[in-house]
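Notes from hallway chat w/ T.B., transcribed later so I don't forget. T.B. wanted the structure written out for a chain they're using in a teaching module, and asked if we could keep both sequence and structure tokens in one place. Agreed to drop them here.
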Amino acid sequence: MGREPVSAFRFPSIDFMAFRIVPVTAESWRSFRALRLEMLADSPKAFGETLDAASRQSDDDWLRRAAETSSALSCGFAAVDDAGRWVGIMRARVEDGRTFLLGVYVTPLLRGEGLAEALLLEIERWAGKRGHDQLTLEVHEHNQRAQAFYRRMGFNDTGDRVPYPLAPQEHEVVMTKPSVVT
């Protein structure tokens, strides 16, 4: 469903699996919903939304959310396996002239296989084409694995902390990446 793949690749460490990176579109709302619910079940503190709240949303809500992901000020890319299943996602949104990275997720069995790197490259290309030379993100203070990934990808901790939306006594670490691919 949706547009043609942006890129395709095969991982040597995963037998017989190929992946495509595709844009998130309104037409892909069912896959978007399925992966979002998986994300929330797997990592309840990572996305600022509860599984219960997301599960109660209507099909129209999911269609709207997917459509909002592909606009002039936002984008999303999904990693899709050779069976058509979404196994990773990364989104970005422009706010106040800054590009924010959002909703980064890779299915647990495929973490460390390069999917997040491929998704980040597409986000960087998208931002670069719009003249944005920095990415900003917020990651839960206890999500050390994600913070380590972002550091490997060139993000730096700004020292700023913001309250975590679902538990304001907890915080999110603000990180930026000073330059992106054009």
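Follow-up for T.B.: The chain has five helices and eight strands. Might be a good example for the class.
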